[in-house]
């Protein structure tokens, strides 16, 4: 019903889906490196993060199981099994975080959002709590009107 009241003259183009896709890819790459850093830390090698120029070129080595790929001074590195485990754990955490943020964004800016409705804090700042209480029978007759309960 509310969607029929307002027409959006701007068509959706490829920019927004492309930005979302690139952001998710960057989160995945950073998640792989975070998983490797945690695996190396727990193996006793310390927290190792590659230089920015090695973020993408070191991915094939990491995915093959080389926990020292892309690091300037790897030192002690994790075993391939531990590396894969921590990469999968960080990928799962990233996926859950991305899904949670997607749900929040969809509810806030999606097509089913309420348009023109003031939030609770906006209504309180504009009307004030005493006025809201004084006129509650007009604002919510179902709860505070004559026929309520």
Could you characterize the architecture of this molecule?
- The structure is a single chain.
- By secondary structure, this protein is mainly alpha-helical.
- It folds into two domains: 13-115, no CATH class; 118-149, no CATH class.
- Helices cover 61% and strands 0% of the residues.
- The chain has eight helices and no strands.
- Helix 2 runs antiparallel to helix 4 (80-109).
- The longest helix has 30 residues, at 80-109.
- It is elongated.
Biggest beta-sheet profile = none
Q: What number is the mean pLDDT?
A: 87
What's the number of structural domains? 2
What proportion of the residues is helical, as a percent range?
55-70%
Structural class given helices, strands, pairing?
A: mainly alpha
Uncertain stretches of 5 or more adjacent residues: none
Number of strands: 0
Q: What is the helix tally?
A: 8
Beginning-to-end CA distance, first to last residue = 30 Å
Q: Could you give the order of the helices and strands?
A: HHHHHHHH
The best one-word shape is elongated
* Gyration radius from CA atoms, angstroms: 26 Å
Approximately how much beta-strand content do the residues carry?
under 5%
Transmembrane segments: 12-32, 86-106
Keywords: Membrane, Transmembrane, Transmembrane helix
Structure, briefly:
This protein has 149 residues and is mostly helical. Helix content is 61%, strand content 0%.
List keywords for this structure.
149 residues, 2 domains, mainly alpha, 0% strand
């Amino acid at each position: 019903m509310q969607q029929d009241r307002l027409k959006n003259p701007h068509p959706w183009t490829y920019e927004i889906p492309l930005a979302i896709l690139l952001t998710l890819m960057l989160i995945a790459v950073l998640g792989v490196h975070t998983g490797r850093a945690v695996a190396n830390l727990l193996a006793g090698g310390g927290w190792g993060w590659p230089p920015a120029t090695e973020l993408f070129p070191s991915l094939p080595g990491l995915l093959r199981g080389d926990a020292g790929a892309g690091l300037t001074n790897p030192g002690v590195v994790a075993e391939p099994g531990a590396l894969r485990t921590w990469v999968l754990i960080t990928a799962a955490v990233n996926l859950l975080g991305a899904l949670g943020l997607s749900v929040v964004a969809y509810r806030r800016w999606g097509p089913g959002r309420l348009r023109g409705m003031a939030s609770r804090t906006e209504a309180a700042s504009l009307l004030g709590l005493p006025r809201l209480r004084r006129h509650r029978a007009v604002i919510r007759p179902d709860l505070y009107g004559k026929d309520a309960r």
